[in-house]
Sequence to fold (127 residues):
Amino acid sequence: MDKKKILVTEDSPTILGLVSESLKEKGYDVITAQDGQEAFEKARRENPDLIVLDIMLPKIDGYKVCGMLKHDENYAKIPIILLTARAGEKDKKMGEEVKADAYLVKPFNPEELLAKIKELLEKRKEE
Fold:
């Protein structure tokens, strides 16, 4: 099995490190970004298998990054998980509008995140 490449975008170094390490332990190849502009550029350059994206980011927010990628046919099939502290219904609805594949709220259970990543990667493989 080839190593799946995951782009993790998070402006908190602590959460970025936690998510990155847990993914590396599961055998994923991890790329990181700390703001929306960097995430967008790395997504286009690296073409990851999946993206974990915070919403409240410097430069470009996660909603906008997600929307821009989902509206580009070259990147639209990349599953995107929004991982955020914003738990309101309005926020979740916005996640649906930008076509995010999943919406997880912080504080999050790392096992739940790993399970969602595995599920989305398997679903993409079937397409």
